[in-house]
Structures are given as C-alpha cells and as structure tokens.
# Entry
Amino acid sequence: MAELPSTTGSPMPSFPKVDIHTHVYPESYMTLLRSRSTVPYIYDPPSNAPSRLIILSSDDNPSIPKENRGRPVDSSYYDVNEKLSFMRTHNITTSVISLANPWLDFLSPDEAAFWATKINDDLNALCESQAPHSGTLLNESSLLFAFGALPLSAPSTDIIANEINRMSSLKYIRGAIMGTSGLGKGLDDPGLDPVWAALESTQTLLFLHPHYGLPNDAFGGKETIERYGHVLPLALGFPLETTIAVTRMYLSRVFDRFPRLQILLAHSGGTLPFLAGRIESCIAHERKFVVNGGDVEGPGKSIWDVLKQNILLDAVVYSEVGLKAAVHGAGSVDRVLFGTDHPFFPPLNSKEETWLSVTMNQNAINSAFGEDSESAKAILGGNAARILKLDA
Ligand code: URA
Ligand code: ZN
# Structure
C-alpha cells in the first residue's frame, strides 16, 4: 500500500492500520435518542451546558441531576469529519464503523425493521461518501467500512434474517454488530437459530459487543457505582457480560450446530481467553452433562477449538498481559484485530491530541511483539484487511 497523505504532517504507515472497533451514532439515531426520556436517551439541558448521553441503566440515577447524568455527548459521536480527524491523528488508514450501544434493542417490534434498514443504508452511504473516486487519489483503498445493525426486536426472526441477507449485499457492510440480549433471552436462546443460520450462510461476521453489564448489586448497589463513576460497569461489567454471553452460546451448542459461524468479541473476549481452561474444567466435572450421565447435551467442540475456529478477538484490552492472553487464546496473532472504541474514552484533558485509550493499546501491541514486527502489522491491520476483504 502506498503512503497516504496526512494533514497532521506525519505520514500514514505504509501498511494498513485498520480500526475494527469504532462507533458512530448517525444523525438520525441521535434524533431518535433526543425524542426519548427513558434509557437510552439524550438530554439537552436548557442552559448552554453540553448534551448528555444516558445509555446505561446505571447512568439513570434519579438522585443525580439530569445535566450530570451519563456522559457529555459531542460531535465526535456523529460527525464523520471528527472520525476522519481522529483517524489522521492516530495514523489509522481504515475504520470499520458500527452503531454504538444499545443499537436497536430498545425499539418496539413495529419500528425495528424500519430503523435497521435506515441505519444500515445510512452507514453504507456514509462509507460511500468517503470512498476515493477512481483516479482522484494516490490510493484506491476505501477509508470507511461498516458493521450493520440488526432489527432484533422485530416480530419475527425472518425479518432479522432478511436484513442480514440484504445488508450482506451492501457495498461497504462487512458484518453485523449485536449486543448480548439477542431476542431478549440471551444468546443461548434456540429462537436465535434462524439468525445464526443467516449469518453463517451469508458468511457475515458478527461483532458481539456488551451493553447491559451486570446488575448493580454485583457492584454494591447504585451508591457504590455513583461513587466510582463508570469504572465498575465499564472495566468489569462489560467484559464479564461478553464472557457470560459467549459462554452461554457455547454451552447451548451453537458452535456445534453452526460450525462456520464467525464471531468477533469486543474487548478481547472479556475474560474468555483467561477463563477458557476453567470453563473446560467445569464442564468436565458437571454431572448435568450427558457425558457424565446427566440430562443436558453439553458442547461437543472444545472451548479451545471454538476460540481457534469460530472466534476473533479485538485488541482493545489496554495491556501487554491481556493482549498475550488474547493471542494465546485465539491460537495465533492472525485472529486478533486492532480497535480503539472511539468516540468512547476521550482524553479528559481536551488539550491532548493523542488519545490515551489508543496509545495504551498501540503500546501493548508494540511491547508484546515489537514495533514494526510482522505480528504487530498483522494485528494492526493485515488481519482485518484479509478477514473482512477490505480490498474487494
Ligand atoms: N462505553 C459504552 O457505552 N460503549 C462502549 O462501546 C464503550 C464505552
Ligand atoms: Zn465499543
């Protein structure tokens, strides 16, 4: 790949640097959130104070004034120019954007299909608007691709499967993002089989991302959460939610029934790589499973094979030890992909141009594998380019 021109003065890397975990709330979705007064919603204070994004139920604490609830929301959440500027600052050549949580989970059944079509068409058009036109740029690679959203609250799974089929023919869509609630009963729900089947048959990568966390009681209740802000729900609630969701899929034999399903797990799989051995051991010692004369047919495939064959992990783990666990769990550097989680975790000091949340992940890659090593390049972009067919 040739060097791309950069407006910051520092040249773009001569290899692709692809951000596969980067969110956007399209303008239409912002309007939808502004029209609501229950979670998820955007609150615009009557004063000139910044609007607030209240998407986590732990954020909607009535003892906190609305203008302090949740987090401030600025144009980095919806303006594509902010995304491009962030990419230039961090030498990112390509971003695979996705709608941020809680996606379309909260919609009434009759609205879901409309919004999924709208959001997916909007995302595709946004990517198209930034695509270089033939002959006008040094480099023909597109800057933006997207993971589409699913109408999970639709009245039938046929509607969800139809949208998966439709989005897989949109030029810039490279997969679908989904939370852990599925149709409302979690990801071991057999009712999801038509969704897994549609993802598998269209070879659509599923990006599994947390949103709901753990119940407040797990952290000592609302008062404790309020005392420490987002630290407990985001540092612990999110990764454990992902771990539980994918383990339920595994226990219910989803990967035995849909052996070609490909899932990208947010935040390096939560704690899955670290806990896989414990999951294996608990299954081997569980009397409920048929293998031990029990009454439930347990998973056929080993959790290690699922990690190597069905699961990809992002590299949003912020430490060398976490990244190494991800690579060992995935079985190879070829299944771990760089991401940023932009626009979440902005620098709290607005004068900093480079985001700490990005450099922590970049440093973990460099110290684990060596700057400019083949492994680092694979994680930073080569894997995403190959797996998501970004050249096609
Ligand atoms: N907080 C969120 O609500 N979502 C993210 O993706 C990251 C942080
Ligand atoms: Zn995220």
